[in-house]
Amino acid sequence: MKLHRCLLAVALAMIVAVPAAQAWGPLGHSIVAALAQRHLSPAAEAEVERLLAADHTTQLADIASWPDQIQDDPAQATLWQQTRKLHYINFRGGPACDYVPPRDCRDGECVVAGLAHYVAILGDKSQPDAARLEALKFVVHFVGDEHQPLHDGYRDDLGGNRYQVQFEGRGSNLHKVWDSGMLKTRGLAWQAYAQKLDAEGPVTLPPPIAPLDDPYAQWAEESCRITAAPGFYPDGHKVGQAYVDAELPVAENQLRIAGRRLAEVLNLALTD
């Protein structure tokens, strides 16, 4: 009986220790940040570097995953609890992906509202630099989050976390495959990956979605519609080379769109 209780305690500890899914993972978030930094206005770039100096860096890529990393920092436990629901949105309205705030973003707890909140702080020069630096970290991260399709997915499967798959001979889930699994098949570090994507030239942005007047809501709907496309959820729960060949270009296009939009957000927020 004592052995059984001990094994149960170990099993529960392992379950609790499993980290929350991270949109794009460090690789994808660094790519988005690097793409954005390449297209900052001189004024925005100067302000970014001034704020980042407190963290002894000049690179947005260095802070792009910080909002995920704080979940493992006891000193940031309160902030993690306050912000952990702001990394995603679980649509409840079925395959139409229509954003209805009272239904899909209750009490402002979703990535759409979270991004708007931190953009406002970042652009407010009456705020202390420490608050604006923290806001910069969340803005960089949340723009990336919004463009990972399964961070704008359905509540039924928690954005693909409950959709188990076989990938590269191992068990996984579809969320992890999109977070990092497919990107890693390129075998590129984030610097080289960003250079590759940037060399493809300006990315074409999707057209506006009527009647939305909130760009952050539009980005969420766009991403959700990717998850609703035929073939996004692989047949037989197996992610093979054919799936990667079809979906990796979609993921990379999302990274490029996120990088361009992040640059535009920062240029607007940080330029007088």
TrEMBL record:
Protein name: S1/P1 nuclease
Domain of life of the source: Bacteria
Organism: Rhodanobacter lycopersici
Pfam families, A to Z: S1-P1_nuclease (PF02265)
Cleaved signal peptide residues: 1-23
UniProt keywords, alphabetically: Disulfide bond, Endonuclease, Glycoprotein, Hydrolase, Metal-binding, Nuclease, Signal
Record InterPro entries: PLipase_C/P1_nuclease_dom_sf (IPR008947), S1/P1nuclease (IPR003154)
Record carries keyword Transmembrane helix: no
Ranges in coiled-coil conformation: none
